[in-house]
Structures are given as C-alpha cells and as structure tokens.
UniProtKB/TrEMBL annotation:
It comes from Gleadovia mupinensis. The gene is phyB. Residues 284-354 form the PAS domain. It comes from the Eukaryota. This is Phytochrome B. Belongs to the phytochrome family. Keywords: Chromophore, Photoreceptor protein, Receptor, Repeat, Sensory transduction, Transcription, Transcription regulation. InterPro entries: GAF-like_dom_sf (IPR029016), PAS (IPR000014), PAS-like_dom_sf (IPR035965), PAS_fold (IPR013767), Phyto_chromo_attachment (IPR016132), Phytochrome (IPR001294), Phytochrome_cen-reg (IPR013515), Phytochrome_PHY_sf (IPR043150).
Length: 354
C-alpha cells in the first residue's frame, strides 16, 4: 500500500445470500460478492460510530443487491420456462427437426450465438455455427473422449481439450452439447467475449523480477489493464437445467416414434440400441432424478395413479410442504385447494392421456 501512496485503509465486505444469483434465496449461508476499499494518504483512525455506520450501509447495499440478483434470476427463469414449454409443444406436434425449423427454436432457449441439431447424420445449423465437416469432427471427439457422459458444457473449447479449437476462430468459443442418442446431438455455441480486467498492480512477466535481497511490496502498483480472450460467457445453472430438460424430452420423443409416423425417428437405430436399452433407461432415470432435485425451477412428478412421485426443493420451498410429506400423496385430493380440485383433476386427466 505504501507504494500506492496509501498510509491508511478501510475495507468493507459486500455479502449476499449463498444462492442469490441462482434465485434460491436461502438465508442460511452468505458469500462474498465484493469489497469496498477506502484509502487515505495520511495516518487516520476511523471512529467506531463511523465504522459501524459504514458497515450498516454495506449491509443495506447487500440486501438491495440480493433482491436485484434474485429478480434477474427469476425473470430469466420465467423466460426459459416459457420458451421450453413452446419447444415441448413442438416436439409433441412435429418431428424433432421442428425445434430448429420453426420459431421459437432452440436458439431461443438459452442465450447463444448459434445452435444446431445433428440428427440421423444430417446437420441443421442456426446462427453462428461450425461447418458440417467441423461438427462431425466435434462429434467424433465427443464420442472418443466424453462418450460416457450425457453432455458437455465449456466456455472454452481449447481449455476443454478439443485439438481443433483454433480452426473454429473467435466466433465459436464456448459450447454446450446434449446427447440424445449415440448419433443425435443438440448443440449451442457462444462466440468469444473479450473481457477487460483492471488490476491494481501490473502483472509480472517471467523476465520481470523484484529485488530478491529486500523484503518489500511489489515493484509496480500502476493500474494494469488485461484483456482476456478465447473465452465465452459461462453457461448458467438455469440454462443447463433447461438444456437437460429438453434433452430428456427429446429422448422420449425419439423412443416413442415409429417408422410410419411423421413424429418418428428411425426405428432401426432404436433396434440397434436394444442391447443397451436397460443401461440407457437407467442413465436417463438417474439424470431425471438429479435434474428434479437440483433444478432452480419448481418441478414435481405425478404417476398414472395421481400420486406424487417427484417433488424438488424449489416446490418444497414454495408450498412449504417437504419432500417427505409430499411423496405418495394424491396431488388433487391432498395438495390442491378444495376449490381447485375439479379443475386440477381435469387437467391431470388430460395430461395423463397425452
């Protein structure tokens, strides 16, 4: 600090709820969001009342910031759920290619610069995407190095280990991919975002050295601007939840299809995968359970008997009905308000009939 001309300093922490940016508003944990640092060029002792008032001001700022972050997250969540509902409706009415050939498309599901469906060996690109030859190379890389997973998300293909990342240029930097089958994939792409970071002191280069014989602060504290490239905006948890949900729905759409229906996907591939069907179904079931439990959106599941068999933490928070209390209960008779039983019963009946 002496090198910066500062003799005294006061540091105040700005804290928010642990999951504020994800819209979960739990108050049991807090995390550091930022710091407010004041410097003075002479010796100065800040009186306790002033320090206390400053801390109170930071708490008030943190509360306001917390509400702003939660509101932004909830608005984003509503937008994603609305788009997801429309895409699900497309899958019920049309072939899987409808999610790229109609509007809204998969590009509207999450913020991206391009998206694509690779289905039955055919490539359906939207926006800024790799070429067909490049996407085939990416698919081969995914199957070779990430074949056991259900998808991949990264803000830098280079950092993820894709050897041909440099050939894609700055327009294709980040990628999220969902596996539908071993031959069908959903892709979302993001372009490079140059991010400026202002440092309080210049970063050292390997050739720069301080005086090794003296214990002192760093030799330079001049403002330093670093521009970080070759990286896209990160994929948010709510966006990945939406992608995974669409992935599961599209898998079901493919399985339920047959060769004589316009909604079908090639039945021959399903027969070729029959030996792996049990493992695949088990994997999907585990993924579905994980998604329901961790999603920031309220999700519950009801069986054909009308009994609740899935109830995630968000629903429990909104209804104040714990998972243990909800499981096994009748949605219509035990959970829905009496005045809404008839409407809820009709909606559930039609939903179960498809």
């Amino acid at each position: 600090e002496a090198n910066m001309g500062s003799i005294a300093s006061l540091t105040l922490a700005v804290t928010i709820n642990g999951n504020a940016e994800e819209g979960v508003g739990g108050r049991n944990s807090t995390r550091l969001w930022g710091l407010v640092v004041g410097h003075h060029t002479s010796v100065r002792c800040v009186p306790f009342p002033l320090r206390y008032a400053s801390e109170f001001l930071m708490q008030a700022f943190g509360l306001q910031l917390n509400m702003e972050l939660q509101l932004a997250s909830q608005l984003s969540e509503k937008r994603v759920l609305k788009t997801q509902t429309l895409l699900c409706d497309m899958l019920l009415r049309d072939s899987p290619t409808g999610i790229v050939t109609q509007s809204p498309s998969i590009m509207d599901l999450v913020k991206c610069d391009g998206a694509a469906l690779y289905h039955q060996g055919r490539y359906y690109p939207l926006g800024v995407t790799p070429t067909e030859a490049q996407i085939k190379d990416i698919v081969q890389w995914l199957l070779t190095f990430h074949g056991d997973s259900t998808g991949l998300s990264t803000d830098s293909l280079a950092d993820a280990g894709y050897p041909e990342a440099a050939t894609l240029g700055d327009e294709v930097c980040g990628m999220a991919v969902a596996y539908i089958t071993s031959r069908d994939f959903l892709f979302w792409f993001r372009s490079q975002t140059a991010k400026e970071i202002k440092w309080g002191g210049a970063k050292h280069h390997p050739q720069d050295k301080d005086d090794i014989f003296k214990i002192q602060p760093r030799s330079s504290f001049k403002a330093f601007l670093e521009v970080v490239k070759s990286r896209s905006l990160p994929w948010e948890n709510a966006e990945m939840d939406a992608i995974h949900s669409l992935q599961l729905i599209l898998r079901d759409s493919i399985r339920d299809g047959d060769g004589g229906n316009s909604k079908a996907v090639v039945e021959a591939e399903v027969r070729a995968m029959e030996l792996h069907e049990m493992d695949e179904l088990s994997s999907v079931a585990r993924e579905m359970i994980r998604l329901i439990e961790t999603a920031t959106a309220p999700i519950f599941a009801v069986g054909v008997d009308g009994l609740i068999n899935g109830w995630n933490a968000k629903v429990a928070e909104l209804t104040e009905l714990s998972i243990e209390e909800a499981m096994g209960k009748s949605l219509v008779r035990d959970v829905v308000h009496k005045e809404s039983e008839e409407i809820a019963g009709k909606l559930l009946f039609h939903a179960l009939k498809g």
